Amino acid sequence: MTQVTAEIAALVSMTVPLCDIGIAPENPRADLPADDDIPNLAQTLVTEDGAGQLVPLFVRKGKKKENIWMALDGRRRLLAFAYLLENGLIQNDHAVRIIVCETKEQQARATVILNSERAQPHPADKIEAIAKLLQKKMSPGDIGRALNYSAGELNKLLRLATVHPRVLEAYRADKLRENQVKLLARLDDKNAQKEQADRAFDYGWIDEARVMSQIRGDKTLVTDARFTVVTLQDYLGAGGRVERDLFGEHADSVIDSEILESLWQAHAKDVAAAITGKYGVETYVAGVDRSAVIPDTMEATRSYIDSYAVANDLKAEFNSERAVVNAFETELNAAIADGAHDPNRVVEYLFAYASLHTYSSVRREIGAITITPDKATGFKPLVALKPFVPVPKTEEQLQAEAEAAEAKQRQDEAKSAYTVVTHDRIATPKMKVDTEGLNNSLHERRTDVSTKALMRDLADDPEAAIIVLGARLLVDTVTHAYEGDSAARISCKPYESRFEVIPALDGEIRIRVRAWKDAFVASGQRPITFVAGLAMGDRLQMMADLVALSLDLREHATHSVNSSRRAEAAEIKTLIVQDLAQHWTPDQEFLSAHPKSLLMAMAEDLELDTTALAKCKKRELVLQIAQAAAEKRYVPKGLDWSDEVVEAVASDLDDELDDEDGQQGGDDDQSVLVDDDGEGAFEPANDAPESDDGVRFDDDLSDELDDDIAA
Question: DSSP string spanning 48-62?
């Protein structure tokens, strides 16, 4: 203890001229340049009361070619003195307080310990220090003079010093950022400040949107849309006042909102009068609630343009007017940016914008316009429309509409005759199941064994299996029953397409299936009971109808040839006697979908005069081919799923299956027919193998083969 006291006593404190002091090279920060805060530090080193420098420099005596005194600690203070000297605020002989370290131990401590033991103070420390000075009744003026702060900087710190202590606590704990502390400082309610600081501790964030709402309240900002046409100079000249944001981070607030509103109203009334004078439309100026004025008998419109509601026959006209409005807005935005507002162009723009609201399913007429502020263009119109009075229809128009409605009804009735799906629910009896003493796993195992037992017995009774199959097909085809509610997981869906029903083909089957549906619904029986009650011939016929209606061989594009389904179609063909011509020949709708080149090929098959037909228009050509086909019971090639079509590229498919390198086939998978006019159509080639003996096909393989062939 005595030794320490002796060392402290050996330290000598004195004042020396600034010009006699340099920075010792052993100072760990000797080579660092001056930082941006040096000017602020310099202001604290020279005060009117002479107590500017509070902390002396620790120095040693200089050696050869060094200053008389070399600072071991205090580099930034020396740089601050140099700043004052450079700006003429002090002289070269300005007195600086120093403490001389004589021994090597003292010099080492001054060099290492003093330069390492100081930690950068947290900004919250400065704020709390000012708060304590305020608590000691020190005036803001005295605090500013003592700390050499400017009035603006001091005001910001004084506002921060008045926040709730919990806010500074959260700031020091890095739960709040500096900008968030400033945000909370704008709140006058200390309890609200504490609530947000507690939120920062608990959840790591504060509700900044809510704080901003509390700060602004009902204040109007200088970013208000009314300032687009009312200049800030006009507002201030009329006696309006502006409240500046303390920290300069947010928009200024308008104190006298009524002055701003009166100035905007004056501009708006001039525009409203101009619209009425030029277009003869009632025009109003919106009040402070910014609601539209809707005169009696008129109808309000949406505040936005609903382009989706515009009728197709009005689309072109609407889009043309909308392009004009867009050009207006571009022009006005540029004019506002340049401070050159042309009132006449504003009037034209507002009426053009209002006219867009008149488009919907019919064209309406503007009844009234209400002007509201808009930040982009200065003004925006709210529109009221006059009642729509349709033009009386002529007798011819009424007769045409009635005939069209009757034709549609007949068409709908014709379509409904082929509807096979019923919404009638199948009665399901409630089953009493004894599950006492069973857990879920055991119940699953027992039902699993029961399922397998029923499988075995059903497999030994083909006649019963046919009944179950027929019942399942019937239910799946003509009802919306959930598949999971059926014991047999057999699926059958009726074929659907975007083309019309062909009465002589699928139409006949749909009529039959509808009759089975009606009989099933009328019986009130469960499906298996109903099918079991049918005679064997009826049962087989019903199954044939259902299976036939489930076929789906349609290919949506020439590149989507499905070899697997086509091969199965060829196999079905070998089981039946197929003669498409006895049911149907090409009609006009079917033939009209073909290009002229394919129609001429059919004409050649029918032995028609192709030279004469080549000069005919397509409509006449279709009529003649349809008549000839009906007379000769002719059906074009490629519609009968014949074996020849399937076998046409069998060798190509075999080559692909045998290709160990996975190379794709050539372009022979499709034959392209192009007519004289450049019209063309693909006749998809069929690529099933001649025989599938020894070859195992699955869905994935089929898809891969289809992709290869399509490529």
Answer: TTS----SPEEEEE-
Q: 157-163 — which CB contacts under 8 Å span 24+ positions? A: 157/126, 157/127, 157/130, 158/130, 158/134, 159/185, 159/246, 160/127, 160/130, 160/185, 161/127, 161/128, 161/130, 161/131, 161/134, 162/131, 162/134, 163/127, 163/190, 163/193
DSSP SS3 for 181? helix
CA distances from 694 to 686, 697, 700 (A): 21, 10, 18
pLDDT at 34 over 60: yes
Instruction: Assess whether pLDDT exceeds 50 at residue 5.
Output: no
CA distance 517 to 511: 10
d(CA 148, CA 47): 8
* Angle made by CA atoms 353, 359, 365, in degrees to the nearest 5: 80
Of the CA atoms within 13 Å of residue 302, those in its CB half-sphere come to 9
709 CA to centre of own chain = 39
Contact 580, 635 (CB under 8 A): yes
Among candidates 39, 114, 49, which has minimal Cα distance to 79?
Answer: 39
Burial (0-12, 13-18, 19+ Cβ within 10 Å), 626: buried
The residue ranges of DSSP E strands in 530-627, in sequence order, are none
Q: Which of 192, 247, 180, 182 is nearest to 217 (CA)?
A: 192
Judge contact between 370 and 293, C-beta under 8 A.
yes
Separation CA 55–CA 77 (nearest Å): 9
Q: How far apart are CA 336 and CA 73, in angstroms?
A: 60
300 strand-pairing partners: 384
- 3-state class of 376 per DSSP? coil
Contact by Cβ (8 Å): 351, 325: no
Q: Report which DSSP code applies to 379.
A: E
List, for residues 106-118, the tens digit of each pLDDT value. Answer: 887 787 776 655 5
**Angle (deg, nearest 10), helices 123-135 and 151-161:** 90
Task: For residue 73, give the H/E element and its range.
Answer: strand 69-73
How large is the average pLDDT for residues 559-587? 74
Q: What would the pLDDT profile of 534-546 be if each residue is shown by its tens digit?
A: 998 888 888 788 8
User: How many C-beta atoms lie closer than 10 Å to residue 526's C-beta?
Assistant: 16
Among all chains, which residue has been given the structure tokens 């019963």? 464
Cα dihedral sign, 672-673-674-680: negative
pLDDT at 656: 37
Cα angle value 525/527/533 (rounded, 5°): 70
Amino acid at 434: D
The gap from C-alpha 600 to its chain's centroid, in whole angstroms, comes to: 52
What are the pLDDT digits (tens) for 197-221?
999 999 989 998 888 888 877 778 8
Beta bridge partners of 384: 300, 368
- Strands laid side by side in the 282-285 sheet: 282-285, 366-374, 378-385, 299-300
Tokens of 591: 């033939």
- Beta-carbon contacts of residue 26 (< 8 Å; ≥ 6 apart): 72, 111
Dihedral sign of CA atoms 601, 606, 612, 618 in order: negative
* Buried/exposed code over 470-491 (b: 16+ C-beta within 10 A; e: otherwise): bbbbbbbbbbeeeeeebebeee
- 548 Cβ contact list (under 8 Å, min separation 6): 509
CB neighbours of 689 closer than 8 A, spacing ≥ 6?
567, 650, 653, 654, 657, 695
Query: Could you tell me whether strands 282-285 and 366-374 are parallel, antiparallel, or unpaired per DSSP bridges?
Result: parallel
Residue with tokens 């009234």: 368
Q: Could you give the CA distance from residue 493 to residue 689 in angstroms, rounded to a whole number?
A: 28
pTM: 0.45
Name the strand (E) or helix (H) holding 283.
strand 282-285
